[in-house]
Amino acid sequence: MRVGVITFPGSLDDRDAMRAIRFAGAEPVALWHGTHDLDGVDAIVLPGGFSYGDYLRCGAIAARSPIMAEVIEAANDGMPVLGICNGFQILVETHLLPGGLVKNDHGDFIRRDQRLRVESTSSAWTNGFTEGQEITIPLKNGEGGYIADEATLDRLEGEGLVAFRYLDVNPNGSLRDIAGLRNERGNVVGLMPHPEHAVEAGFGPDTPLAMRSGVDGLTFFTSVLQQSVLR
Amino acid sequence: MPTIVVEVMPKAELLDPAGKAVTGALHRLGHSSIAEVRIGKRFELRVDGEVDAELLTQVEEVAADMLANGVIEDVIDVRVEGAGAAGETH
Questions:
Q1: Is this prediction's ipTM beyond 0.90?
Q2: How many domains does chain B have?
């Protein structure tokens, strides 16, 4: 399976995402924001970073970059798309996922190992988890506060589209502790924390077992492989 | 050269953390009479030639579609300034 990772000007975690894809057993494919070429990939990751310097709004310019026309079309045709952090911001700016992300309510950039509860396993990127599973992956953002109007929030809850919720602390003031969402079809997932930074023992979050041994993020990438086998 | 000015503000009901931080700094500097600061954006779109109603409509559309995100922001003003403006306001 070939999984594309799009590099925008200002992307920071594109290489980490490619590494995570390789660890999961898939082939990472580097894609470039300025083209209209998805290179025949089977799935796409929009990585974290500060695309286009976060000018205008986080993800706003990237959402209108050339390759995103193809990404939106492919997503609407059912191709798995994962947006991580800035990638999540890009997904809401394209309206592939609803709502918006605003500055953290405390005003500070935050970095922590974040506990999450997996709320939905009905997606291409979460089917390897169990419903209600608690995982820990790194979080690092300045504008990660999820907002939407009450009607949208109620719909997200009612249709089971909340994919991840913050546990212990809400690090950015996200409404209803929402850390990540999936779309109705389950092929598009976006979240603020970074699964690609928790895929290899020695470099992930601490666990009770050993320092830096957390690899909960790997399941995102093995899930999409599993999805392609089932299809 | 006429300039179309577009002003965007965070929605009134939304917390504006940047504005809140500036409010705090002003209070520390003794400006206790300033109750609140909210921070928005001003876009200046320079135009070749005259600004007609059609162009202004286009700018209003692009302001709502791209310059502001309707989920978190409101376009509060689109107006023409500078030569050729003829006091036009929308």
A1: no
A2: 1
